[in-house]
Structures are given as structure tokens and as C-alpha cells.
Specification:
The structure is a single chain. With 762 residues, the protein is α+β, with helices and mostly antiparallel strands. It has 4 domains: 116 residues, Topoisomerase II, domain 5, CATH 3.90.199; 80 residues, Gyrase A, domain 2 (2-Layer Sandwich); 126 residues, Topoisomerase, domain 3 (Orthogonal Bundle), CATH 1.10.268; 219 residues, 6 Propeller (Neuraminidase). Helix content is 31%, strand content 21%. The chain contains 17 helices and 34 strands. The chain has a 4-stranded mixed beta sheet. Strands 10-11-13-12 form a 4-stranded antiparallel beta sheet. A 4-stranded antiparallel beta sheet has the order 20-18-19-23, with no helix packed on it. β10 and β11 form a beta hairpin. α2 packs across α3 and α7 runs antiparallel to α8. The longest helix is centred in the middle third of the chain and has 42 residues. The chain is elongated, with a radius of gyration of 43 Å. Belongs to the type II topoisomerase GyrA/ParC subunit family. ParC type 1 subfamily. Heterotetramer composed of ParC and ParE. It comes from Roseospira visakhapatnamensis. This is DNA topoisomerase 4 subunit A.
């Protein structure tokens, strides 16, 4: 039996585009998204821990250096700088590059500006900078310190995106830019947020870390106590929280505006805000405060105005001289951006380009390691330059010692360079230098200067070689460089003054809810057609009230603007109306259904002022009811809260307080009357207290509806109005009974509408 081997067919020829490989879609997407994420993290969003710059900022500074925009030089149009950046180094949109450049020049955005702008570069109000064709810029001394040593092989260079030129991968960074200016960025799956700090304090912490390699975070924070924002303000975070944030690399700092009280005549005063939190736009802040004033959310504040010129000056006028400034500012801190929280997230790229969250010591040590490496590279570069120069000077000295022979060789030999090398045992560099000498250099004085330079360079070479061989000397030199930065930009300089005050956490000020709304007496008017309005003060005479045609007074409630009003509808739901939300002014007010969502098919039964701790007696038209706590009637939404459940064909009918006189003294009996004109009086204790439901039967009815309920004190008797007179029945024994009885005919003179009327307990 033979076995036949089948040869698989050859693969199809590859197309002109290259090889085609089968791969899973999830794997392909994952690889490409990861590549995109890494590109975003490394090339756009996260700063380098060594120089604190993102690629766009690094390329901006390098392009300006190439254009020789030194601090002592002239300005150039920003459009020229942006053009060089996007053309040579950063192939992105010009607007993004210009915005990055503008931010480096804004003194309110950057603690130590790297660009000095000329023209409109925006302001703290949030206005944008002028177009790049109108503005000009040059580098600052801080930016120059960042790039010091670029020509001395201090850092690595790499090809630009098109390979035509080289650009630095990192700046030498003599200035601690990462902590001094901070950084913000959002990458794919990670972000960074580092606040600015004071350069002098950073240098103090760096010097301490040089002397104490394992210094605890607490020692470093003692020298670098917290952020120093360019807009000032007051840092009101506890020292423990600050240490914890720097220990983990993550945390938050609470920042408040700085304010003072200016005394005026007659006991008046005003509050002046002179510094606002970092990254807060002043115009939006003032608009927010003005909205609070207009909506009466800050009743202690009367007015706000902006008197800022070069400095911030926001004037807050209190409503009266009796206002406590601390309480007023506490309200504003809670409701506006006069207080903010700056989140700390020290997520940076380390020296190997790996993103990770560092603590304060790691960030400082990474900067020191970078400065140490820069020192070593610059020293070696200088040694190479000295060695080359000494080699050239050695050739010059040979030429001076054998000047006549050198001249003869140059004049007579066909190949003078080779002849010089053979005759005097010179190197190629020395022979080339001799051939390039000028005749004026052959004077005797020049020989003396060469010997002097040779001696000086030899001495410098020995010192540099000693430096390279001794780590202690190298770290001492790094410390000297940091002291130089501290002297140039630390305390005692224009930029070095600490702007953000370090304060203790403020004591908790209890601001009652009533203080958030202006407290003043009002009379709330509800009409039978459901229109509501508020009159200023407690109005006694309501005879002059005007209503729409066909409308009339339903309820008048005397309250305060800080009170809450309970509105009961015939569907058994309570709706909560804030006293300060009731429309005021002339006119008929507005429909209450614009304030709360009362259905159109529901009638308005009662409007009462909410009394904390109070109780109400609720009853439906079918004669059922119960007692409920007023707190259980408060609704949290405009849709209200279902409290009284009404049966089919019945509606909520009555809402009465348990204190008939409105003085907090509860009644002891309940009087019930229905459309069948039967009156029943029974003890209040027979009515249960419930949170919601149908309740119990208050009066037995047949083919009748409950019309009114009243809580009374039996010793005071039963009162009702008859025309302009108020009548009282003191002997209620004929009508006394128990709950759910039918009752008897009411006393002579009882109203024909079978209602007790207003008892004055509203």
C-alpha cells in the first residue's frame, strides 16, 4: 500500500506594497493604540524631570536661542519664532505652538517666565493674546540659565523630525524649572499637575539633599514648605497634609484669596481682595459673585466691583455695618473660586523616558543627578578643548624656537606640511596650525603670550582632571552652581520674593443656612387661581390687594425670606416653596406651578409656614385623617412629596396645626364637621401620628363629605366667625364623643358653609 504525499500550494505572490500577515484585530488595535499612547505621553504631555519642559517648550526655547534672542538683545516677531519652530522642530499647528509660547511669557501663569513678551500677551481676566504677527518676544535670564552649556556637549542632541538638523533631547537646566514653574498635562491614561514653587526654597532643599543623601521628606519640606503661585494668595493647608502630598507625589493644596478690611467713616467698612487663587479668571470670578448678589444667595454682601489696574483690586461692599467680615468671606469661599484646591500629581518622565509618579526627594535627586552629569560632560568637553589648544600651542612654541628653518621649509618644500612633521616630529594638528599662522603672530611679544596661555591651560587641565577624579569635589561644584542660581533668582531679587503666604488651616466658621439668604419679613399671598407673590413686611390690612378678574385671596401667610412654605394640594402631596423664591414686586406675582410641579387637575388646599418640630392634622374629604410631623412633609424636589393617600372619589381637604393659637401650646380635642351638617368633638389622642398613608376614620359619614377639621383646647371652647363677629361655644358636652361617630347638629349660628373659618393660627 503506497502513501501519497500532498504538497501544499505555494503562497500567493506578495503585492507591491509588501508582506501581508494575518493578525487578530484586537492585537493590532492594542499595539497601535499603545504606540499612540506612548507617543502622546513622551512627546506631548508629560515634562522631563530634569529640565521640567515638554518637547514644544524645549523646541521653542532652542529656536529662540538659534535666532539669538538673548535677554540683552532685541525682540523679534513671534510669528518668526513660531515659523522656525513648526518648520524645523515641531510639525504641529501654529496656534498650539503660539499658545504655548504665550503662556511662557505670562507672569500670572508662570512663576518664572521663560519668554519676555512685548505687546498684548493676554491678562488675568482671561483675554487672549494678540495675533502672533503683532507681538514680539525674546528669552529671559531664566531661559538662558536653562540652556547654559548647550555648546559644551552638556546634553545629547538628536535629529529633528526631517533629519536635516539636530535638537537637544533635554536642556542642561542650571535652573530647577520643573518645581519652579510647575507643569500641567493630560496624556492617554495619565496626567500631571505640579504647582510652581519658590526657586530660592528649591535651592535650599537641593543643597540640603547634597549634604544629606537620605534626608527625610520632612526635612526637605522644612526648606521647601509649599507651592509659591505667581498670583499669590494664601495656602491654608495643614503641614501634615503638605508633607503627605510630597511624600506620595499626590495630594491637594487648599488656596484662598488674600483680602483685607478697609475702614471707612461712620463705622462702615469694605473688603478688598488683592490676590486671587492661581488659574482663576478675574472676570468670571466677579461675574459669579455678582450672580450670587443678584439671586440673594449671599445676603451679607451688598455689591461687588472691580477697581483693578496693574494690581488686582476687587471691592466687596457689605450690606450693613453690622456684617461680620469673616462670616461674609466664609460664604464667598464656599460658593466661589475665591477658594480653590490645586491637585498635586508629580507624574513625570525620568532620565530614561519612563513616566512615573515621584515624591519630592526623587524629583530633587533627579535634578541633582542631571546637574552632576552635565558637569562631568562639560568638564570633559573643556578638557578636550584644552588638550587641543595645548597641542596647538606646543606646535607654535616649536615654530618660535626654529623660526628660520620653519620659514625655509614653507618657502622651499613642495609639501611643507609633511616636511614640518618629519623635521620637528609634529602632529598633523600642529603642522596645520603653523601653516595657518599669520605673519603678525611671529613677533616676540606673541611668543610670551603663548607661553603664558600654555601655563594657564596646563594649570586648568590639572584642576579639571582632579575634579573628575574626586566625587566630593564634583558635588561641591554642583552646590556652588546651585548657590549661584539662588543668588540670581532667590530671595533678595525681584523674582525671588515669596508671593503665596503660608497660613494655618482656617478655623471652622459655622455659617447657618439662614445666613445664606437675606432674612426679612414678608407676607406671602396665594390666590384662588394659584398665583403667588410676596409683599415686604408683615401686612395686617389686606383689603387693598388686587387680583386678576375672577381671582381672589386664598391664603395669606406671614413669614420670613429664610422660611420654607408647605403647600398642600388636593392630590395629597406637599410641595416645598422657599421664602426667598417667592416673586416680589408689583403685579400679581406668578403661577405657583412655575415654582413647584403641582398638576393642573389638583386644587390648592392650604399654604403654611414650616415650623421645625411642628405637627399637622391632615384630613381627606372621605373623613379619614392622621397627624403628621411637619418635617415629614418637606419635599426635596419640585415634584413634592406624597403624604396623604386619598381614596377613589376623595381629595385632600384640610390641613390644621395642632396648636390652635399658634403659640406652640397643643390642643387636646378635635372638632370635625361635614357636609351633612353634623359636628363631632373627640380627644386628639385618638388620632395616630403617621408619616404617610390614609389614616383613620375621623367621622362616620353617609352620602356626605368632610368639610373642615379643627384642633382646639376644650377649656377654651369652640370659636367660629359669623360675619364680622366671632362667636364661642364653651359648653361642648353635647357634641363630645369618640372618633368615627356621626356627631350632632352644630350650635345655633354655626356658618352655613360648615367651616370653622380662619382661626388666626397661620
Amino acid at each position: 500500500m503506497s502513501t501519497t504525499t500532498t504538497t501544499p500550494p505555494p503562497p500567493p505572490p506578495h503585492p507591491a506594497g509588501g508582506e501581508i500577515r494575518d493578525t487578530r484585530l484586537a492585537s493590532a488595535l492594542g499595539e497601535r493604540y499603545l504606540a499612540y499612547a506612548l507617543s502622546t505621553i513622551v512627546s506631548r504631555s508629560l515634562p522631563d524631570v530634569r529640565d521640567g519642559l515638554k518637547p514644544v517648550h524645549r523646541r521653542l526655547l532652542f529656536a529662540m536661542r538659534q535666532l539669538k534672542l538673548d535677554p540683552a538683545g532685541g525682540f523679534k516677531k513671534c510669528a518668526r519664532v513660531v515659523g522656525d519652530v513648526i518648520g524645523k522642530y515641531h510639525p504641529h499647528g501654529d496656534s498650539a505652538v503660539y499658545e504655548a509660547m504665550v503662556r511662557l511669557a505670562q507672569e500670572f501663569a508662570v512663576r518664572y517666565p521663560l519668554v519676555e513678551g512685548q505687546g498684548n500677551f493676554g491678562n488675568i481676566d482671561g483675554d487672549n493674546a494678540a495675533a502672533m504677527r503683532y507681538t514680539e518676544a525674546r528669552l529671559t535670564a531664566v531661559a538662558q540659565a536653562l540652556m547654559e552649556g548647550l555648546d559644551e556637549n552638556a546634553v545629547d542632541f538628536g535629529p529633528t523630525y526631517d533629519g536635516e538638523e539636530d535638537e537637544p533631547r533635554v536642556m542642561p537646566a542650571a535652573f530647577p524649572n520643573l518645581l519652579a514653574n510647575g507643569a500641567q498635562g493630560i496624556a492617554v491614561g495619565m496626567a500631571t499637575n505640579i504647582p510652581p514653587h519658590n526657586a530660592g526654597e528649591i535651592c535650599d532643599a537641593l543643597l540640603h539633599l547634597i549634604d544629606h543623601k537620605d534626608a527625610p521628606i520632612t526635612d526637605l519640606v522644612a526648606r521647601l514648605p509649599g507651592p509659591d503661585f505667581p498670583t499669590g494668595g494664601e495656602l491654608v493647608e495643614s503641614p501634615e497634609a503638605i508633607v503627605a502630598a510630597y511624600r506620595t507625589g499626590r495630594g491637594a493644596f487648599r488656596l484662598r484669596a488674600r483680602w483685607t478690611v478697609e475702614k471707612l467713616s461712620h463705622g462702615l467698612f469694605r473688603i478688598v481682595v488683592t490676590e486671587i487663587p492661581y488659574q482663576v479668571q478675574k472676570t468670571k470670578l466677579i461675574e459669579r459673585i455678582a450672580d450670587l448678589v443678584m439671586n440673594r444667595k449671599v445676603p451679607l454682601l451688598g455689591d461687588v466691583r472691580d477697581e483693578s489696574a496693574e494690581d488686582v483690586r476687587i471691592v466687596l461692599e457689605p450690606r450693613s455695618r453690622g456684617v461680620d467680615p469673616d462670616t461674609l468671606m466664609e460664604q464667598l469661599f464656599r460658593q466661589t473660586e475665591l477658594e480653590t484646591r490645586f491637585n498635586l500629581n508629580m507624574n513625570v518622565l525620568d532620565a530614561d523616558g519612563v513616566p512615573r509618579v515621584m515624591d519630592l526627594r526623587e524629583v530633587l535627586q533627579a535634578f541633582l543627578d542631571h546637574r552632576h552629569e552635565v558637569l562631568v560632560r562639560r568638564t570633559r568637553h573643556r578638557l578636550d578643548k584644552i588638550a587641543h589648544r595645548l597641542e596647538v600651542l606646543g606646535g607654535y612654541l616649536v615654530a618660535y624656537l626654529n623660526l628660520d628653518e620653519v620659514i625655509r621649509i614653507i618657502r622651499e618644500e613642495d609639501h611643507p606640511k609633511a616636511a614640518l612633521i618629519d623635521t620637528f616630529k609634529l602632529t598633523d594638528v600642529q603642522a596645520e596650525a603653523i601653516l595657518n599662522m599669520r605673519l603678525r603672530s611671529l613677533r616676540k611679544l606673541e611668543e610670551m603670550e603663548i607661553r603664558k596661555e600654555h601655563a594657564a591651560l596646563t594649570e586648568e587641565q590639572a584642576a579639571l582632571e582632579t575634579l573628575l577624579s574626586d566625587p566630593a569635589l564634583r558635588w561641591a561644584r554642583v552646590g556652588d552652581e546651585i548657590r549661584g542660581i539662588r543668588d540670581a533668582f532667590g530671595a533678595g531679587t525681584a523674582l525671588g520674593r515669596r508671593r503665596t503666604t503660608l497660613g494655618a488651616p482656617p478655623a471652622a466658621i459655622d455659617v447657618p443656612v439662614e445666613a445664606m439668604v437675606e432674612r426679612e419679613p414678608i407676607t406671602v399671598i396665594l390666590s384662588t387661581m394659584g398665583w403667588i407673590r410676596a409683599l415686604k413686611g408683615h401686612v395686617e390690612d389686606l383689603g387693598d390687594l388686587k387680583f386678576k378678574d375672577g381671582d381672589a385671596l386664598h391664603t395669606a401667610v406671614r413669614a420670613q425670606t429664610t422660611d420654607k412654605l408647605l403647600l398642600l394640594a388636593s392630590n395629597g402631596r406637599f410641595y416645598t416653596v422657599a421664602g426667598d423664591r417667592v416673586p416680589r414686586g408689583r403685579g400679581f406675582g406668578e403661577p405657583v406651578r412655575l415654582i413647584v410641579d403641582v398638576p393642573n387637575d389638583a386644587d390648592l388646599i392650604a399654604l403654611r409656614r414650616h415650623r421645625p418640630g411642628g405637627k399637622l392634622l391632615l384630613a381627606a374629604s372621605d373623613g379619614r385623617g392622621f397627624v403628621v410631623e411637619e418635617a415629614d412633609c418637606l419635599g426635596q424636589t419640585k415634584a413634592g412629596k406624597q403624604v396623604l393617600t386619598v381614596s377613589a372619589g376623595a381629595v385632600a381637604a384640610v390641613c390644621r396645626p395642632l396648636d390652635p393659637a399658634g403659640d406652640g401650646t397643643p390642643g387636646d380635642h378635635v372638632a370635625v364637621v361635614g357636609s351633612h351638617r353634623k359636628l363631632l368633638v373627640f380627644p386628639l389622642e385618638q388620632v395616630p401620628v403617621m408619616t404617610k398613608g390614609r389614616g383613620v376614620q375621623l367621622q362616620r359619614m353617609k352620602d356626605a363629605r368632610l368639610t373642615d377639621v379643627l384642633v382646639l383646647r376644650l377649656a377654651d371652647g369652640l370659636r367660629w366667625k359669623s360675619g364680622d363677629r366671632t362667636r364661642t361655644e364653651t359648653d361642648l358636652s353635647p357634641w363630645l364623643g369618640t372618633r368615627a361617630q356621626a356627631g350632632r347638629l352644630p350650635p345655633r349660628g354655626f356658618p352655613r358653609d360648615n367651616r370653622f373659618g380662619d382661626q388666626g393660627a397661620g
